[in-house]
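Structure ticket #2291
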Amino acid sequence: MFVLNFYSPVFIDQLKRGRKTATIRLGDKSTKYRKGQVVLVTVGYQHSPRERIFEAVIDAVTVKRVRELSPRDIEHDNPEFRRLDETVHFLEQIYGRPLDHEELVTVVRFSAITDRPTEMSQRMRPGPAQN
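Resolution: structure written out below.
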């Protein structure tokens, strides 16, 4: 199973509340992550214990240039951000170097897999037999 790991513990609450539903990764990651793939979402630093948050299914993997990131991409990655410059600054901090707006990034959209029944699954259950 592949892991989709986040370094900052700030994301734990956003992930658990369903506010963070995407990640923007530097470079073309389309061979690593594919639509329909199940991944384990974790939070923690490399070579350290990581917290298991949930399993998720990859909904979409889109490779684009930094300058092509949409407001929707930005908001799904970090619900606190609205502008490209905020996201670029954040990515520069994560990757420890300046980013060029022509560089490729991969937007990975995902949905949590939950054990609790949703309203949709409740409605899909057969009701009592009618005579």
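Closing remark: The CA atoms of residues 65 and 104 lie 4 Å apart.
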